[in-house]
Amino acid sequence: MATRVEAQTSMSVSDYDYSSFFYSSSDDPFAILEPYNEWYTRALQQGYYLFSQPMSTPPRGKIDLTEGLHHQHIKLLNLSSYNYLGLSYRPEVIAAAKAALDQYGLGAAGSPILSGTMDIHVQLEEALAKFKGKEAAMVFPTGYSTNVGMISGLMRPGDWVIADQNAHASIVDGAILSKANVRFFRHNNPADLEKKLKQTTGKKLVAIEGVYSMDGDVCPLPELLAVAKKYGARVLLDEAHSAFVYGANGRGVAEHYGLEDEVDIHIGTFSKALGGQGGYVAGTRNLYNYLKGFARSRVFSCTLSPVVAAGVLKSLEIAQKEPQLREQLWKNVAHIRSRLEDEGVDVGESTSQVIPIMVRNDRRIFELGHKLLRAGLYLQPIIYPAVAKHRSRFRVSISASHTFEQLDEGVATLVRVLREEGILV
Length: 425
Ligand SMILES: Cc1ncc(COP(=O)(O)O)c(C=O)c1O
Prior knowledge:
The protein contains 14 helices and 13 strands.
């Protein structure tokens, strides 16, 4: 954006979004910082910048948070955290992490390929491989670095990465880093995938997700796999939001469809249902051995903290031993969906625990978010570039640990504010 925000006095903070601040006309890379900071400061002052407000409690149904406008500590009903099975603060998980802290100290102090592999990491990888029914599983420091390392570790210039148009930034960034040719097919559209595959020759990787993180819809895996196989493409399935949640045993959307062996690369994160941090790739031993040398986001980065690894290992154990957590989650999802439907709220195509509350107004989303916050509800506004322009929404994340009362309270507040603001009729 070449013009300064303050020069346009008639413009309000909500007239801008991140795309206004990608470019400046100057040769100095720092030239963009000032106009952006003018907007940012005004957005903060007016209570429209609702990101990164610090929480001082675990991500429970009820949280304490310091809001950004007056720096006041407030109590909120939380419908924003990923903690799908409520495991991040389970006493057994905390105890396992504390014991690991005593045994190993805070960090691994090295890359996994050099000195940073501890026995707790090996145990976690073995437990994951067993859970997924695969020869091997590799742990990465984050879910983001998992996709980046996996895709850029395997694909090369001249190859093809063909991803769903709604694929997560980590898939997109991994593909860009690989310097392969990158194409996108229409969201969840096997016919368009076929069209794109037909136009390519050489090595091909199709990258899709189990549950899409911003829309909460599930991929049509059988149809997508059939097309990918027809054209000899390998398939990467990112189950960040579906692992430990979908499937009779919690092994994700691939298990749900009975297609675990047809998927070549299984990816997941520990930051969602397991309430921790980190990510994994599960597949063949050959894939593991190759990635060990070539997944640069893992090779050139310190190993996941042993404290987190131990907590995640305990979360994994609980997720397997307590299928009732998944059952409760699905009961909660059914409950809130029926309440939202009764009220006529637009939840897009969601069928999962990720439920977008479609606002489709990029300018008003922050103002609405601020009103919701003042009304006691913590919901994150999602705007471009996380979603396409004019597809802004609030994203509800349901946990097994929510009570029906909390969900009812959340829907009542949401509906009241959306009606007052004319978003919901
Ligand atoms: C589909 C998908 N993949 C990967 C990630 C990155 O995971 P993490 O936050 O654990 O780094 C996310 C995060 O939201 C995601 O939605």
